[in-house]
Amino acid sequence: MDPAPALYVIRINGHLGATVLSAFPAMASRLQGAETVLTGLLDRSALYGVLAEAEALGLDLLEVRQLIPHCGSPELGDSRSP
Amino acid sequence: MVDRVLSELADARGDITLVIDDLHELNSPEALSQLTRLLMSLPPRVHAILTTRHDLRLRLHQLRLAGELAEIRAADLRFSERETRELLDASGIALSDAGAALLHQRTEGWAAGLRLAALSLAGHSDPERFVAEFSGSDRTVAEYLIAEMLERQPADVQDLLLRTSLLDRVNGELADLLTGRPGSERILLELEDANSFVESLDPERTWFRYHRLFADLLRLELRRTLPGDVPELHRRAAGWFTLQGQVVEAIRHTQAAGDWPEAARLLADHSFSLTLDGQAQTIQALVRAFPSGTDHPELALVRAGGDLVQGRLDQAAAYLAVAETHAGTAPPDRRRGLRVAIASLKLSLARRRGHLAGVIEQVRFLASPVTGQSDEDIALDRDLRAVALMNLGTAEAWSLGLPDAERHLREGAVLAREIGRPYLEVGCLAQLGFAYIFHGAAMPKIHPFAMTQARCREAIALAERYGWGAEPVIAPALMTLAGTMVWLGEFDEGERWLRRTERALRTDTGPDIRLLLHLTAGILHAGRGRRHEALEEFSAAEHLGSQLEGLQALASQVTGWLLATQARLGLPGEARACLAALDDERAGSGEIRNARAVICLAEGDPAGALGAVRDVLDGTAPVLGYVTVVEADLLAGLAYRELGDPRAANQAAERALALAESDRLVLPFAVTGSRELLEALPRHETAHAALLADILDVLHGSSPAAREQSSLPPADELSPGELRVLRYLPTNLSRPEIAGELSVSPSTVSTHIRSIYAKLEVRDRSAAVQRARELRLLAARTGTTVT
């Protein structure tokens, strides 16, 4: 369907601790208020894998968004910051 | 499956509730659409309860609109504040109303979260402070609570939970092994008593499993805190499962430990035994779990087995060659086992190619006695003997070596039962059903079609008991059942069994079994007068036949059908050209002689047709079964009609009826187009009036005019006598047997059945049953007189 991986932003309610974060090794995480934002380059099956994992862990999923990549995107920069 | 469930539900008394749990595991669109069909057509007193973790593509909007669907969604499952209070009280937790409200707010009434919180709160020195801290935390509910709960456990319990989290299920012994400490069983029992996240799986409380969310979080915690220990834990688990003989679990843990060469070795050593237990699909899943790119020579044997099961014969042969080279380099203690597995696969390969000589050669190798006499060797010996018997008997059945085929398949089934290999038993019985269709066709007095059908149904029932009712292993029996139905003129029922056969064969593309599928489908089309569709199927069967080595029983039958269908479609030229290309042996078979007669008739040469069938009728031409002779009589009758000799035509038709009588064979009359021949036969001159009437019913049904008839509700009520007969139609009883049950003559039963068909406006028995069900005529109406 869509072979090229794309950058996805996934927002989850609550702060994910180290244990739960270890379930998403391919995603960078940052806290934003009371939420956790995961960002990562995913292809389709990886994306659905992440969603299934979130469902299995009982996480409260708020948003899944694909970022349209273009040079100098501020969000891309954000996701890479520690 | 759906039809079977529905018919069983229809027969059941009282209210029934059907529960399907964990429905989210069901992914195939086909299964979901079948399930939708089941749910939409449940009888009124049957209720269904489905549980799933997420919404599925079930098309239930009609039920929703009709108010027949009650949905309990997340919001309904959420605990209210009052229910939260009740849960806390029931767990003996003293918490202020404000504290309980805070807890409810923080968990949003999520049941699993509340249960976890109750665990941490039980025996907590300051529950109010716990709730306040919990509410102040931004961490996710589950993670916070699991961490809290774990922290409150003693160190050995924490360690046990973490280390055993990588098992799907755990018992005391296994937990002792993974923790390196005794006493695990007591801890597991206490955990089950104390909370609902550990539950026992058996009444004796020896096996336990963890709640899924709980296990997932524990596993993550284990990998985070003890990453270096994980492979060793899997290795220990694998060792334990190997000792227990639970090979699949052992291989899974070996793979999880990353010990790929060892996992490959285990899989190769056990693939033979796993295949005999019907675990072909499990084996393929294990093979897929190996990382791609790094292929292990051990796996060649396993891949060969997978290709063979799916009918990819050339690929299987290529992998077998690799496996054979590799087996030569294996240490001596493994060599015998590998060689045996290879020989058994070669045996199946030769059989599937229709190569009888190759089968016999491999059987000889397998029959050579095993040198060692350990229990393992003896078990291997018996497995092998059963496999050899199944393949030998099957190859013989396909080559018409009937008495041998029957003997070997029977012996194989008995042996398989003795050694506890039901998959092999099902395999033998399924092939036995197939063997009988020829046996029956050769000797209708000894093995009537009804008996063949009974044997097929027995094999299918056994397969269903083990969940193999839609697997390739049972396909020969399904197909034979479909075929006999078609020969008896029960086209709708035959089609249903044929559809089921197709489903069973969806993963098997082997030319042998596919040939049989196309042949049976073609015969069904031919019986219904759909000659174009029939021709396509016969051409496909003929093409597959060319891929099979050696002589196969069906070759002359397939070619005969193909040529006759071409001629009937007005293509006698093409048929003649094919006929000319056949060698003398094939051309001399009864089936091809009949086809030649059909061609002659199409060319307007009835005398030639009579010449073609002469050797079939006097018994000098070899025939597959008496059905070929019935057909020859009918072709002769048609030729006599053309020649203006009605007396000889009538005599030929009467001979055909006499032969067809014992099985009540209908198909040859339909495909030869013998309607006018039969209608010209004076009723007082035939000794087979009842059969004749049945056949004419089917022939009228298969004419295009009848097919377009609208299905209006029946104008006439059934008479009491007809109703009595009607109630026997859903059974397997034949007409003479029904007559016996009702103490009337078979011809009375036949008269009633004809009248039932006419009143219900159906053409065969299965359609009559279906129509009668719709009209609720089959329900016992005690105390009501039906006039």
Give the averaged pLDDT of chain A, no decimals.
81
Give the CA-CA distance, first to last residue of chain B.
Answer: 36 Å
The profile of the biggest β sheet of chain B is: 3 strands, antiparallel
Cα-based radius of gyration of chain B, to the nearest Å: 33 Å
Our Rg estimate of chain A from Cα atoms comes to 12 Å
Helix/strand order of chain A = EHEEHEH
User: Largest contact between protein chains?
Assistant: A-B, 19 and 23 residues
The number of distinct β-strands of chain B equals 5
Structural class of chain B: mainly alpha
Largest sheet features of chain A: 4 strands, antiparallel
- The overall average pLDDT of chain B, rounded, is 85
* 3D shape of chain A: globular
Beta strand % of chain B: under 5%
Multimeric status of the protein: heterodimer
Q: How would you classify the helix and strand content of chain A by structural class? A: alpha+beta
Helical coverage of chain B, percent range: 55-70%
Given the structure, what is the number of helices of chain B? 44
The number of helices of chain A is 3
Strand order of the largest sheet of chain B: 3-5-4
- The beta-strand count of chain A equals 4
Task: Kindly state the percentage of residues in helix of chain A.
Answer: 25-40%
